[in-house]
């Protein structure tokens, strides 16, 4: 029987397997390190790009902050202008109101029969004092005032006969109380309405 010694062949094969496994292991490790280095470089590039974008957005946000501040200033100025315009419109309305009222009173006066001495308007109440030739003239004046659009009510407070001895003439002094359109009571909110 012939004996063949396969041991050196097996040892060479075993060595070759170990060498192959070591080269696969080192190649795998090298590939993993290369892959990690690639991802690290890519991640660093992404982080740098994101940092740059963040800085750009921060600068852009700063410009928007200035713009927002300007917009708030403009809104505040617009509110002030609206308030001033409302005040001007109210003043215009109040300015023309007394003019219309005086015009209506002047139109209601019977010419050369009635003279006004004083007029005082406070909180929508107009007090008129004057002198008339007689009571009929006072009544005519009151009727004319009642037809005026800016006067709501006309009441006679008093009349008094007065004798002018220098002119040998009897005249009537009168006091009228009228309500005008110009004063409106401020509406107070109901106590329960404030809590709602």
CATH architecture classification of the domain at 90-180: 2-Layer Sandwich
Biggest sheet overview: 4 strands, antiparallel
Computed over alpha carbons, the radius of gyration is 52 Å
- Low-confidence parts: none
Question: What is the assigned CATH homologous superfamily of the domain at 90-180?
Answer: General secretion pathway protein M, EpsM
Bulk shape: rod-shaped
Helix content: 55-70%
Spatial order of strands in the largest sheet? 1-2-4-3
- The fraction of residues assigned to DSSP E strands is 15-25%
Q: How many beta strands in the DSSP annotation?
A: 4
N→C terminal distance: 117 Å
Using the coordinates above, name the CATH class of the domain at 90-180.
Answer: Alpha Beta
Report on this model:
The structure is a single chain. The chain has a four-stranded antiparallel sheet, with helices on one face. It is rod-shaped and about 180 Å long. By secondary structure, it is of the alpha+beta class. A hairpin with a 4-residue loop joins strand 3 and strand 4. The chain has two helices and four strands.
């Amino acid at each position: 029987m012939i004996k063949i010694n396969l041991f050196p062949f097996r040892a060479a094969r075993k060595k070759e397997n170990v060498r192959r496994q070591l080269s696969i292991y080192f190649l795998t490790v090298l590939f993993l390190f290369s892959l990690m280095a690639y991802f690290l470089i890519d991640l660093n590039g992404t982080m740098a790009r994101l940092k740059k974008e963040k800085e750009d957005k921060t600068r852009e946000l700063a410009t928007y902050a200035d713009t927002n501040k300007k917009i708030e200033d403009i809104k505040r100025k617009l509110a002030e202008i609206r308030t001033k315009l409302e005040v001007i419109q109210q003043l215009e309305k109040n300015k023309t109101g007394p003019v219309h009222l005086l015009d209506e009173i002047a139109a209601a006066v019977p010419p050369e029969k009635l003279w006004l001495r004083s007029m005082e308007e406070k909180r929508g109440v107009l007090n008129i004092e004057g002198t008339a030739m007689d009571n009929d003239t006072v009544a005519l004046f009151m009727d004319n005032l009642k037809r005026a659009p800016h006067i709501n009510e006309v009441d006679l407070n008093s009349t008094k006969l007065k004798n002018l001895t220098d002119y040998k003439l009897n005249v009537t002094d009168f006091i009228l109380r009228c309500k005008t359109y110009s004063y409106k009571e401020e509406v107070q909110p109901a106590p329960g309405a404030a809590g709602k």
